[in-house]
């Protein structure tokens, strides 16, 4: 008898997960594809757990640099040649650029990073990423 | 394990056959402290060799992540050394290698980073049976294998491991323990 009651209680929950809203589907797509792209393009150095490697490659997980989100978005595409300070520690190695990453790729990687380690629960939409990428592309050309 | 040749020789007037394992030939390069590093540096040690270059964007960070695990596991073991040859000596000078090693958390001389004339390094790569060469099509312009090569105290190659994966490094470390145990019982 008790089991049957529990089963009925689960029905609304099941219906909800079965019919995710458009928004939820989009978030899931961004996160999952972001994870795959992160694994392919970022994890070699920054590691699967995002903790980096010693003083060679800075952490993303637990990194105070995440507060510069626009810089992070540009970094993913364009790399960086100057030293970077993360959590008070200086890292001298350049980060290679990833010109092959499209705007949606960058948006999905950003979503993955900020959902996983930046405390965010919403996506970084491709429109937002494109705007930032355009701005830093123009700045770089100056 | 390892390549071997069957040789025949005369002993006490009789012809006998024996098995000769392939040995790493002599080499002479410069390490991260601008000191010579040669085959003699590894006398009486088992060691793990690999080929990499600092600006390599693809497999090298993975290899260094795994080699660092090996280093941490066998740190201060007097019977164990590590040897990473750079295949980009133009960029990877002793000073650059030193900075890299320090950033990786490496101190002392247990992990040697070797640099020298490029052709010599490519030739040495062949002696470890791994690929190291220039290739315009490869990321960074250089092509090299991601293998870790385990060499015993007699300079015989005892195993090759995938240096880009945790599983490969785990297998290497297990074999290193076995090899060290072999010497203990001798």
TrEMBL record, chain A:
Keywords: Heme, Iron, Metal-binding. Residues 29-117 form the Cytochrome c domain. One of its GO terms (molecular function) is metal ion binding. The keyword Heme applies. PANTHER family: ALCOHOL DEHYDROGENASE CYTOCHROME C SUBUNIT, BLL4482 PROTEIN-RELATED. This is Cytochrome c. It comes from Larkinella humicola. The lineage of its organism: Bacteria, Pseudomonadati, Bacteroidota, Cytophagia, Cytophagales.
